[in-house]
Specification:
40% of the residues are buried. This protein is α/β, with parallel strands linked by helices. An eight-stranded parallel beta sheet has the order 7-6-5-4-3-2-1-8. Strands 13-14-15-12-9-16 form a six-stranded antiparallel beta sheet. A two-stranded antiparallel ribbon has the order 10-11. Helix 4 packs across helix 5. The chain has two domains: 205 residues, Alanine racemase (TIM Barrel, Alpha-Beta Barrel); 112 residues, Lyase, Ornithine Decarboxylase, Chain A, domain 1. Helix content is 27%, strand content 22%. The longest helix is centred in the middle third of the chain and has 17 residues.
Length: 339
């Protein structure tokens, strides 16, 4: 099965151009992006790989899509007609994929519309309909519904001429690829799992997280009993407490909502609790029982010793949200692609 490497949202916070280049060099069939801005950044970086636009496009963006031979998914007849006109005006046939809504509710033709729409689409000679795809909204939560989606998708393909009508057939995201049989699909669209995080916990042991979020201890002080720590004084010391300040906060993307839910960090081979609320640029930890901790020590916020899933759970969110929330002021350092 071929792969579309999903690199939207800055390659899930890892760094768009750098990661896109790595995937392109491995020979993936497509790079999947959310919008024209991401596609343009990849093109400007000189990365040679087909680019697939995962979402609907604005009318003013479509001329560039045609000129650059990016591949859009078609969710409406208005899009199809417009792309057809633009392609003909450029003297070319634009390769497009048909998006089908089998339950996501975000875009695509609903299955009942397809037989009639297919007849009309086939008359658009400026378009080469080379693929068909849909999306799984609950592959990590609802197995019964997901299996029904796969079955429906196969029936849709059969009703529109079979696999021969579509050189590319894709439905499986990361959870769909790990936990199900894609059957008639020949293209997978993994996202999260490409970065070493499994949406299905049972498969995490097979993957290695690509990102480690690190900072350093910037200050160490001993606070007396009864001293508040951070905004709102939600934490007050009950003993003389050696407090280490870390140069990382929600302004860097570390989620503030972990506050009060027993978050921890990894430092010098041990775990230390975060005290009080995470602030914009800093956070504090209790190192009273670790006299060896010093200013300048490296601190792991998540990574091989502290799963990003744990941070997400304590923030009442999901791993995708944490990863894509790491802000631009956090320096990305690339140590090489996994083998």
């Amino acid at each position: 099965m071929a792969m579309m490497a999903v690199v939207k949202a800055g390659a899930y916070g890892h760094g768009l151009e750098e990661v896109a280049r790595i995937f392109a060099e491995t020979g993936v069939a497509f790079l999947g992006v959310a919008n024209v801005g991401e596609a343009r950044r990849i093109a400007m970086a000189g990365i040679s790989c087909r680019i697939y636009l995962l979402g609907a496009t604005w009318s003013e963006e479509r001329q560039e899509i045609v000129e650059r031979d990016w591949t859009p998914c078609i969710s409406s007849m208005e899009e199809a007609r417009h792309f057809d006109v633009l392609a003909k005006s450029c003297g070319k046939r634009l390769r497009v994929h048909i998006a089908v809504d089998t339950g996501m509710g975000r875009g695509g033709f609903v299955p009942e519309q397809l037989p009639e729409i297919w007849k009309v689409l086939s008359q658009h000679t400026g378009l080469e309909i080379e693929g068909i795809g849909s999306h799984l909204p609950s592959a990590d939560e609802d197995e019964e519904f997901t299996r029904a989606q796969f079955s429906q998708f196969n029936e849709i393909i059969a009703g529109l001429g079979g696999v021969a009508a579509f050189p590319w057939r894709h439905l499986a995201n990361s959870a769909g690829l790990l936990g199900y049989d894609p059957l008639q699909c020949n293209l997978a669209r993994p996202g999260l799992m490409l970065y070493g995080i499994s949406p299905l916990p049972a498969f995490q042991a097979r993957l290695r997280p690509a990102m480690t979020l690190k900072s350093r201890v910037t200050l160490i002080r001993t606070l007396p009993t009864g001293h508040g720590v951070s905004y709102g004084r939600s934490y007050v010391t009950t003993r003389p407490t050696r407090v280490a300040t870390i140069g990382m906060g929600y302004g860097d993307g570390y989620p503030r909502h972990v506050s009060g839910h027993a978050p921890r960090v990894f430092l010098r081979g041990r775990y230390f609790p975060v005290l009080g609320r995470v602030t914009m640029d800093q956070m504090m930890i209790d190192v009273t029982d670790a006299t060896d901790v010093m200013e300048g020590d490296e601190v792991e916020l998540f990574g091989p010793n502290l799963p990003v899933q744990e941070v997400a759970e304590k923030a009442d969110t999901i791993s995708w949200h944490v990863l894509t929330g790491i802000t631009a002021r956090v320096v990305r350092r690339f140590t090489g692609a996994a083998t």
